[in-house]
Amino acid sequence: MHVRAATIKDAEGIAHVHVDTWRTTYLNIMSPAYLATLTYDIRKKLWQKHLSDKEKHIFVLENEQTEIVGFAACNQRPLEPHVGDLTSIYIIKEEQQKGYGRLLMKALFQTFNELGCEKVFVEVLVENDTRHLYEYFGAKIVEIDTMNLGTQELEFFIYKWDSVKNVLAQLA
């Protein structure tokens, strides 16, 4: 597996991973009706927009056949220059639990370090077991909140890492 910076040409591959992982990860968390509304075309347009935004840093995880099997994204907070937001890490179900999340985390935290971020936040649904990846690398819950998605109210944790350098040392 190989991690690299994403380009605009990756929008379709990222869209497929995004839709497919939401349908597996959130199968018993989000309503089936909402998950059925997800389309590759809509997500492709979303990722084309994100990939054109110079403030967003997006990475893809490719297999040996150069197929995109995962992605991750982050950004620096515009009004808080020493704070970053980890906005997503998704890996297709067949490639999860193999250490590839660690590769994507490393790319993100190297980016945070280069941007001068000291702290990083991430929001994760309470029922999403993949949040344990963040806990493993030292993220601490600092707040619990809710959001509405379709007709559902979902609870999520806001995690924080206080030291980008400490996380990078763990990832080394």
Automatic annotation (TrEMBL):
Q: Which UniProt keywords apply?
A: Acyltransferase, Transferase
Enzymatic class: transferase
Q: Which InterPro entries match?
A: Acyl_CoA_acyltransferase, GNAT_dom
As recorded in UniProt, its EC number(s) are 2.3.-.-
* Sequence ranges assigned to domain N-acetyltransferase in this UniProt record: 1-161
A molecular-function term among this protein's GO annotations: acyltransferase activity
- Gene3D superfamilies membership: 3.40.630.30
Instruction: Specify the protein name.
Output: GNAT family N-acetyltransferase
Which organism does this record belong to?
Kurthia populi
